[in-house]
Each structure stands twice: as structure tokens, then as C-alpha cells.
Amino acid sequence: MSMGSSHRELGKPLISKMAKDLKMTPKKFSDYVVCNYSYDDYVAYLKDNDNI
Question: Is position 1 within any domain?
Fold first, then answer.
């Protein structure tokens, strides 16, 4: 995952760690980072998975 030409790409291990910290799958985290996934969607996801 990269967010522009002047930024380094994040590797899969770091993406997986950040996703785990947010209680998301790596796919859901990637969607969230590229703004395909709103804050409300994230809260609903957490509720659906009994995380809050």
C-alpha cells in the first residue's frame, strides 16, 4: 500500500499489525485507508463483530 509517489510503501506485516490494532481485517483496513470505508462504517463493523 502506498499513498503517493513521495511516500514509501507499507509492507504486509505492518499493514496486518495496524489492522489488528484497529480490530479489522487487512482488507477492511486497506479500504479504510483509501477512504472507501467511513468512520460510521468502522463503528458498525466493530459493533457487528462484538468489539464494542
Answer: no
Q: Is residue 33 part of a domain?
A: yes
User: What does the pLDDT look like over 12-37, one tens digit per residue?
Assistant: 999 999 999 999 999 988 888 888 77
CA 40 vs. chain centroid, Å, equals 14
All residues at 6 or more sequence positions from 44 whose CB lies less than 8 Å from its CB, including other chains: none
pTM above 0.90, yes or no: no
Q: In Å, what is the CA distance from 42 to each residue of 5, 36, 46?
A: 27, 11, 6
Query: What are 27's three cell numbers?
Result: 482488507
Q: How many CB atoms lie within 10 A of CB 29?
A: 22
In-domain check, residue 28: yes
